Here is the input.
Amino acid sequence: MPFPFTDLTGQKRRPALVVSPDGFDPEDLVLCAITSRVPGRLLPWDVSLDTQDLAEGRLPRPSLVKVGKLFTMHHALIVGRFGSIRPQKLADVLTLLQRLFEPGTRSP
Here is the structure.
């Protein structure tokens, strides 16, 4: 999908993880960014993602779900689907996402 830069100077096609539940909105989805730029040490709001974390599909390289990089997008802008993640990995993402919005939370 076309992923906007945070400073809104442009966009680039990037993968993303849909985190909104079915029926959330008839047109829009809530997504977390996925990046293949994996640092030597994970940041507090990142969840590692590798091919074995997928229930179907394949990642070309180890990646991260950037839980703190949330955005909404109209479903028609999604270019394609590359796979789906395993339930336990999704649970890890959703747990961290919930912590992001807890009052008084700094970082995990």
The helical segments are 87-100. The chain has a mean pLDDT of 89.
